[in-house]
Amino acid sequence: MIKQLDISASRVINQLISKISTLSSFLKIITHTSSGKIYPLYTIIIPFILEPGLQIVRIGLIAFAFQVPAYLLSKNLIKRERPSPNSGINPIIIPPDKYSFPSGHCASSTLLTLIINQYMPWLTIYFIIWAMMIFISRVGLGIHYLSDCIFGVALGFISFLLANQLLSIFF
Is the pTM of this model over 0.90? Predict the structure, then answer.
């Protein structure tokens, strides 16, 4: 029953987004702002544009040192196929790989939002909106189920908490 609810809700979001071309075009752009390929660029830029940039990068590197292996292990152990037209979900973009669980984009955007909240809370609302747009884009563009994104958010939270624990112990 939960699986069917997950598929049905994901289908409704995908169908709604696919009917609004301006929104789907916007989400195609937004979704790439949380791609794994963009975070090295963020690592270089953030220390130059944000006052606590080095602290943000330090906690980010520690958190990603946990998050990336956990993400890859989950993807390759669970091997959940991405949504497909067979389930009434039509991909609007080409997925980056074969498996969908968990959403690395949602994990990373959640992690960055939590780090920004810790060091620059006045920017948090903007990052929450961005992370929500990433979440919606992954489902709406037809490359993730809702549950993939929910577990991605959870992975981002766990990575953030673990990185803070490690920082408090060792630094």
Answer: yes
